[in-house]
Amino acid sequence: MIPADLTTLAGTWGALHDTGELTYMNLVHLAGCDGTDPDSLTRFEIEGRRQVLLAIEALRRYTPGCQAARLRNLGMTIGIRDTRKIDAVYNLTGQDVRSQARFGDSVGIYPEFIDGYGLLILPTTGRYLHIPYRALLPRGVRNLLVAGRAIGGDRIAHAATRNMACCAVSGQAAGIAAALSVRTGQPFHNLDTSLIQAELDRQGVRHQ
Which of 17, 82, 97, 101, by CA, is between 20 and 30 Å from 113? Predict the structure, then answer.
């Protein structure tokens, strides 16, 4: 029996194989898990697995062609989208993402793609924003660079920058900055961003 008050069984499948199998499904979303607390992670992983079985049952009952659907595999752990983030020298905003923000210290670009908190904007328009180097620099902490999901930004900005492609953008910039810091003897906060941009150009990375 699928509980009437269960509202988390929503999402997408990514592809239909030639054999008729759904090869990727993203159908259970749980709010309120504390990704820094092992006990919370355990409780939510148990609950997530329970709801996966309910999602399969919902597909069988209500989705044409899925009457004989079966679960072949699932994620080995619960996926956490949002935990701790740095307070950066510059924190990206939802307005930055939505208005194609431009920054002089840009170290990469990313399309207007927001996925989270009930908001979905697909990257189909060609619109994009700059990722500023300052978003990788923690405010008040020296000799530290942060890349990936933890860069500075508000809730809606995080729904964009948490995606893997944007994590790759900030990660490449952070690696270049680390190498240049060693080469020049300059700490991260004093590093000339034009040097980072020149190396990005050499590597064929678009940042404007």
Answer: 17
